[in-house]
Amino acid sequence: MKKLLAICIVIILLVSLCSGCLEEEKKPNAKPVVDISNPSNGATVSSLVMISGSASDADGEEDLKQIEVRIDTGTWHKAQGTILWNFDWDTYDISDGLYTITVRAYDGKTYSKEQIITLQVDNPENVESESHKWALFIAAANFPEDNKSKLGNGGLYLAEEMVAYFIEQLQYATSNIILLFDDGWIRKDNGYGEKYKTLQERKHEYAITYGGATRENVERSLNHLINQSNQYRDSEVFIWIYNHGYGDLNNSLTGGKILKSSHIFIWDDIVSEKQLGKLLAPLKSTKVTLLVDACYCGGFADKTILNLPTSLLFRSGIPRLGRVVITGASKFRKGYASTTQGPLFTNLWFEGLVSGDADGFKQGFLKMGRPSLLRLFKDGKVSVEEAFYYARYKLRTDEDLKEFQSMEPQINDRYPAPGILLSRRGLILGED
What stretches in the chain show pLDDT beneath 50? Predict the structure, then answer.
């Protein structure tokens, strides 16, 4: 009797388990849902367009595998992210007109209902003759998962301050200014929290081009800037790049950079001095300012320390006729930044430029900077070189900045031409 009872119990358990499995198997898979939040349907767009939105799945957000985007009847492209997603669409070189954007989500089994919007591409025509000026600002400060390594949103805020100055005081056209930051998303808690809004969704004072500082976007934007500015003999180009540099923090003497190149991080990659040199090689403008602000970044100016040149093996190819290349630190030294105000050197350089306090500043010993003692060297204008020497002098003499003296920013001035005498004329931004 006991044996029979035990057999019955086992049979009941097996039936219950199988029944549960069958019920689980029969449960239908819920379709995911996807929405497009930006741009809005019917919007007019240009340059670099960040299409973004959200997605969900009733079976669990972890079931979302990918979001796919299609332009007109082209191929499907994988977007970045799932619950919050984005896709960068490069319209620099496509024809103006109406384009259909289709988005769908996939959970590994089923596609969502497609969401469709129509966008009007209207890229600006060639700018007026007095506006042959282009600027590109690149900052990717919050990519590390470790919050201790993040640099916050200060770089974005500083870049936008510079953008406003370039538009209001230097006559740069808004259509000629590009700002790339992080992956194109703003994160809460000054960059330390979750992403919640794209750069393009924010309210903007000026209609410049915003996007993520990804390798693809950096190369696209540089190519666009080069192609546009190369059409004019009087073009002016300003490029600013800020993030972590790459070096050995435990090596206080050289940062481990004697036989290595300078590098700077962008959002999803690292760019070396030689790689940037190759990207800038087609640039014809003879009025170029490049400011790189990162640790161990002196190699971008072909400098090591104390204004000493790098060896021929490590020349970047960036310094050329008509270019002023500035770095916020030497190849052997760390740079410093505030999470709310951005990199220290750029802040000092920009302060000298905007306030006019850098007017008349000269090279001094080993290009450490010194104020002019004679009025004749002050002309009411501040060149990018004077702003450099002002910042260098402040780092050396200001008691409040004493702990940052070791940065030793570097400059390679070849404007308007290389040579002690030929480079005496300063590069004045915005001057026709």
Answer: 5, 8, 10-24, 129
Q: What are phi and psi of 90, to 5 degrees?
A: -90, 110
Tokens in use for 161?
A: 């301050």
The residue range of the domain holding 80 is 33-121
* pLDDT in the model for residue 233: 93
**pLDDT of amino acid 52:** 97
The pTM for the full model equals: 0.90
Residue 389 near residue 345, CB atoms below 8 Å: no
Per DSSP, the three-state class of 69 is strand
Q: Is residue 14 part of a domain?
A: no
Closest CA to 414 of 329, 318, 311, 348: 318
* Residue 80 structure tokens: 């970045």
User: 3-class SS at 322?
Assistant: coil
Residue 326 pLDDT: 98
- CA–CA distances in Å: residue 144 to residues 73, 182, 269, 293: 37, 11, 12, 18
> Is 159 in a helix, a strand, or coil?
helix
Model pLDDT, residue 153: 96
Q: What is the number of structural domains in the chain?
A: 2
297-343 pLDDT tens trace: 999 999 999 889 998 888 999 999 999 999 999 999 999 999 999 99
99 with 154, same domain: the answer is no
Q: What's the rounded Cα separation, in Å, for the pair 392 and 319?
A: 20
Please classify residue 401 by burial: count the beta carbons closer than 10 Å to its beta carbon, then call 0-12 exposed, 13-18 middle and 19+ buried.
middle
Phi, psi for residue 200 in degrees, rounded to 5: -75, -15
Neighbours of 420 (CB within 10 A): 6
Q: Residue 399 is which amino acid?
A: E
